[in-house]
Amino acid sequence: METLNGKHMLVTGAAGGIGSALVKLLTGSGARVFLAARNADNLERLAATNRIPANQTVALDLSDPAAVLELKSKYFEVFPVIDILVNAAGTGIIKPVESLTESDFLQSIHNNLFAPFLLLKAFLPAMKETKKGLIINIPGVLGKVPMAGAAAYSASKYGLVGMMQSVREELKRTEIRITNIYLGGVDSPFWDGIDLKVQRDRMVRAEEAAKAIWFLCQQPASGVVSEMVLQPFNHQAI
Fold first, then answer.
1. Does the predicted TM-score (pTM) go above 0.90?
2. What stretches of 80-226 adopt beta strand conformation (E)?
3. Please, which residues have CB within 8 angstroms of residue 129's CB and are 6 or more apart in sequence?
């Protein structure tokens, strides 16, 4: 396995349940981590807890092209390269299709598909210069298996999977690796705003999901883990 000590990383969605647990693991492994998240207060607390300097954090809306360009500028002001990009940001809107508004649908596409596209446009060129790097996205199992009420969410996640598969084909002559982790139900703030009866006590713990991503960040240089599926044992959709 590759060591994370000294690796330069960007984690988006860093202040979420999975992201914050992941940041703790990464900094504990010696990685140099730049954090991005929507909530400025949560981001500040996370950085302070993990002793990450303020100039290694940016609060932003990842679906805003200008904000992503600013993130790129601030990242490369402090880090010379990007070794690993983990995109843990996203939006979960689960409603029957007749209840979905146009705003709901577009928000899902903007945050779960357009934002990862903007991140690719901003940071992939730097990886291409060194011809190496690792990009980890989290489509979730709803990017593989549909569920009632997830029309907008699955549309955005299926799109993310298709986009990354296409980009993988473009990168075959490099050592840039792409990994998708399909997480099932994870007990995280994702569910706080969703009007759906779920058994959160039976879900995967956010800390365990973070450990899986942490493991993927250390995959051997001679190979690639293209996909990983992690879901509750008692509710396996795949």
1. yes
2. 84-87, 132-137, 175-183, 186-187, 204-205
3. none
